[in-house]
Structure formats: structure tokens, C-alpha cells
Amino acid sequence: MRTLELADLDQIYRQPGKLVIDKALTTVDRHGRSFIALSPFCVVSSAGADGSIDVSPRGGEPGFVHVSEDGRTIFLPDRPGNNRLDTLRNLLAGPGRIGFMFMIPGFDDVYRVNGRASASADPDLLAQFVEFGKTPRLVLSIAVEEAFFHCPKAIMRGRLWEAEAQVDRSTLPTLAEVIFDQLNMGKVPVTEEVIMADYKTQL
């Protein structure tokens, strides 16, 4: 089996249309601003200095990511997690390359933003992002380089929002059960209800 090379792509795929190229803007316009204001969830990708890649989910109340008045900057607060800090370490050790995929429950459209990130722990900035009764440890400031709406085909194929496509949670072990099994730690000592209740105190 021959491994494909870059030049092979032009033989396999047709060139993108003018509209697909032109729709990529260098700022978040009013439509992107409206989308982000309704989005409670995004996926963040980052690249580190050594080429390491990370993809991580982020969530909050709709509009938890803020957009500057001129649309050239977006701000992402960092909420409590597992303290691996994969995204933050990538960004601060590397060139700060970052990508976002914003989603709205029920919408098949996706809004994407790419840019360069820097971090700040300025108290005045942090105070603008109090949520769940907590102030973030830091806020990422992203200089927007590219912003555009992504077609809904992937979400439509995955039937992400269709009720009949939902999988019953009991189909797979809980996250705690998986980790305890992977690490040969035996049985989880507390119930899933206790674990979820604890998570809710850490939002």
C-alpha cells in the first residue's frame, strides 16, 4: 500500500470553491459574535513548542467566551480541571497557536476561530469572568487570525442532537470505573452519584 503524498490530494479532491475560501474572515464579525454569545461549549486545540498537540473541551454558560468590540480578540477563562494544564503548557511554551470550534446545542452549524494566544492573571480582567461563583485563575487572550462558519455535514452525519441517536449511559462503564480498571485499582469505592455531586462543586 502506497502512502499518499501532498501532491496526491489534488488528484483525489477538487479545488475548494471561491465561497469556501472567501468566507474565512480575519475578525469575528457580528454573526460570529452572536454565535459565540449563544455557545455554552467549544473544543480547543493547541500546539506546543515540541510539536505536541492537544484537544480539550471547554464549557460554561452561553457566552462564557467573550469577544472584543472590534472582533479582533476573544477571551477564554480557564476553569478548574485536572491540573494537567496541557493546553496552557502548549501555548505558553510554544508559539501560542490555538484553534476553536464553537457549538450550540441543537445547531448543526459550527463556528471556528484560529489565532495566537497569550495568558493574563490581571485581577481586573479576571473579575469580568466570574462564573459559578468563582473567579478563573487566568484568562487566555486570543488574537484572531481566521474566523469562519463550518458547514453542518459532520454534525448531520453524526446525528449529534437527534434524540433517537442518543446512547444510554449504562451502555458503557462510568469514567471512574474505566480509570480504576485501566490502573488495576479494583472497585470504585464510591457511587457515581457521589462522584457527580462532587464534580458539581468544582465547576
Automatic annotation (TrEMBL):
Pfam families in the cross-refs: PNPOx_N (PF01243)
Coiled coil, from the record: none
Domain Pyridoxamine 5'-phosphate oxidase N-terminal: 33-151
Signal peptide: none
Gene3D superfamilies associated with the record: Electron Transport, Fmn-binding Protein, Chain A
Protein name as annotated: Pyridoxamine 5'-phosphate oxidase family protein
Source organism per UniProt: Phenylobacterium ferrooxidans
